[in-house]
Amino acid sequence: MHLADKPPFFSGVSFLVYILTKACNISCRYCNETASANCNNYMSHEIAKKAAMLLFSTSRQPCVNIHFHGGEPTLLSDEWYHDVVRHIKQLAVKYKKTVTLSIQTNATLLDRERILSFKHLGIDFSVSCDGPPYLNDTMRQEGTLVDKALRLLHELRIPTGINVVVHQLNCHHTRDIMDYFKSLEQKSVQFVFLEAQGRGLNLAPLQGEDVFQCLRQTFDYMLDTKCIVVEKRVRRMINRYKLGRLKGVYNCVEFECGAGRWFAAVDYTGRISPCDTHMEQWALGNVMELIDEAKAWHIISEFHKKNASHTKCFCCEAKKICTFGCTMNSHNRQQSMEEECKGTRLFWEYLQNNNKSVDEVFGILEESRSNKYIL
User: Domain containing 182: what range?
Assistant: First the structure.
């Protein structure tokens, strides 16, 4: 299909990230943003509502998700959320769609009242936390406040997603990280390998051996504890090792991701991008203006072009379990992709040499209703 003949790119979008601000009340050493809490750039009610209208009126998907992100999204007021969420839910009724709402937060500003306010609005929680406070604070800040918020969420029986950035200072403490979330009765966590960007450009990068040891230790922990805490990346790798990959799927752990296809982002200026990082570099338009669809599809096509380094993927056995790295990295941070590639190949070899253990972990996952053969 010629680019000019393609449907509006928002017609396929089911997941829209709102980058509400660049401001944040803490200064993580690896953050891809550089602003402080003094930054006054916040998404207006008008832009938030305009973005929601674009999504609901254009997307052909029956179910959509709006994910509030930052910066730190809890810096915006309860009044902002009540107004915007009310409008979003009205649009969902008007356009006969199901909508889910979620927020990615550092949790340092959450108290009981704020948590219950978000819960009342139907906003699901995902918390950025790199382990117990002594590990969290090696790169982040205010680990004690994060721990307090996580315990409060647990007390209130509110399901919470956990994102853990794996870096040089915590990558060999996987068991401590998993034990910590076990103590909070957290059923699953998501590990994200550090990428050099923003404040973290000068940080020591993860090496392939670091990536492998993290994956191996995580797998061994899941084996030893009967998967009492499941790490989502390793779960997917085990499922793929046993069952293969789904075909025709575009997500963040595929050779071609879902950026600009089912996933998009809009920032506090109204700028639209296929991905929620480096939005200026891949701007597709603005929600406050008429979008040039042909231009947007051309940018999305350029975004997904692979460089020569990907040719080795086709003859690599580990491609069965590989995440292929972030598409954005293939443009900006090739070295981190290479190291993740090395770690994945080592983990593939480890799984091949431990098939009995793989079968045991897969059997436990197979019995779990939450597994659903995620591939």
Answer: 8-367
Report the b/e string of 168-197 with b at 16+ CB within 10 A. ebbbebbeebbbbbbebebbbbebebbbbb
Residue with tokens 């061994």: 220
CATH code for the domain of 34: 3.20.20.70
pTM for the full predicted model: 0.91
Total domains, the chain: 1
In our burial notation (b when 16+ CB lie closer than 10 A, e otherwise), range 75-102 reads: bbeeebbeebbeebeebbeebebebebb
Q: pLDDT digit string (tens) for 326-356?
A: 666 666 666 677 888 899 999 999 999 999 9
Q: Which residue has the tokens 């993860």?
A: 206
Q: Where are the alpha helices (DSSP H) in the chain?
A: 45-58, 78-94, 112-120, 133-136, 143-155, 174-183, 208-224, 232-243, 293-303, 327-332, 334-352, 355-367
Q: What is the rounded distance in angstroms from the CA atom of residue 289 to the CA atom of residue 2?
A: 24
Three-state DSSP at 309 gives helix
Q: Which amino acid is at 185?
A: E
